[in-house]
Specification:
- Helix content is 17%, strand content 39%.
- The longest helix is centred in the N-terminal third of the chain and has 23 residues.
- Strands 1, 2, 3, 4, 5, 6, 7, 8, 9, 10 and 11 form an eleven-stranded antiparallel beta sheet that branches.
- The mean pLDDT is 89.
- By secondary structure, the chain is an alpha+beta fold.
- It folds into two domains: 137 residues, Roll (Thiol Ester Dehydrase, Chain A); 102 residues, Hotdog Thioesterase (Thiol Ester Dehydrase, Chain A, Roll).
- It comes from Facklamia languida CCUG 37842.
Length: 260
């Protein structure tokens, strides 16, 4: 290897008015933020491919997200830049985990861990990952790895409401299924109606299951556990059910706390 390949990669983004739906404390546009996180991840992949001299994955394979979890320390201030930093935190033959730190004015305001798997576009099956190259070039920073906890199920919760989700042409990505960001958008659109504006998002966990194709029918089941109100927090569980296949496509669990 000629030269040194950095473990860390960063990009800067302006937090403009597009990141805020209105002025309430829970109005931050998290699906837009996560799109910027994934943009940073994609650009890091391109940078690594250039430095390694060859694509990490062959053309018939693509990355898919299996899990995502985040912790919100504070909402970034509008009108200021944030730096999104990413590092590979874990790699094996099945998954590659990435850590993301979001910094504003040298302060860590959010952290995310996203787990990726490799999908064969022809067979639509997950395949093994040639992870050894990451270890050979010392590109895995294991200090930042965090174990993914089991995503909370809704068995002990009462159903708050349910709604049908409409799939638009723009919701289908290059892998010919509903894009991961669409579930987040649907989830927060529903939470806008359910969550009191005095509450602010503190934690989010997302578990992706079976894919949804363009001609499938989708139902969102919203569960709200407000039994912890006396402890100043509320937990929501949102399950996306593929009604065509009767399989769970995605589960989103969020923890909301009273804003300071």
């Amino acid at each position: 290897m000629e030269g040194r390949i950095d473990q860390s990669f960063s990009q800067m983004f302006l937090i403009d008015s597009n990141f805020f739906k209105d002025k309430t404390s829970n109005s931050f546009n998290y699906d837009l933020l996560i799109s910027k996180i994934l943009e940073t991840s994609t650009n890091h992949d391109r940078c690594l491919n250039d430095q390694l001299g060859a694509p990490f994955l062959p053309d018939d394979l693509t990355w898919i997200i299996t899990q995502n979890m985040g912790q919100i320390i504070k909402v970034p201030d509008e009108g200021k830049y944030v730096v999104i930093e990413t590092r590979v935190s874990k790699a094996n033959r099945f998954f590659v985990n990435r850590w993301f730190g979001i910094w504003q004015s040298s302060q860590l305001v959010m952290e995310f861990q996203i787990q990726f798997a490799a999908l064969n576009l022809l067979t639509r099956r997950m395949v093994t990952i040639p992870y050894q190259k990451l270890e050979v070039y010392c590109l895995v920073d294991k200090r930042l790895d965090q174990n993914f906890k089991r995503v909370l199920e809704s068995d002990h919760l009462s159903l708050n409401n349910e709604e049908n989700c409409q799939i638009g042409e723009e919701d289908i990505d290059n892998n010919q299924h509903v894009n991961n960001l669409v579930y987040i958008r649907w989830a927060f659109q529903a939470m806008d109606q359910l969550m009191h504006p005095d509450y602010q998002l503190k934690q989010i966990s997302i578990k992706y299951g079976h894919e949804i194709l363009p001609d499938h029918q989708v139902k969102l089941l919203n569960y709200l556990d407000d039994s912890k109100k006396e402890a100043d927090h509320i937990v929501s569980v949102q399950t996306f059910l593929n009604q065509t296949t009767q399989e769970e496509a995605c589960r989103v669990v969020t923890k909301w706390c009273l804003a300071n």
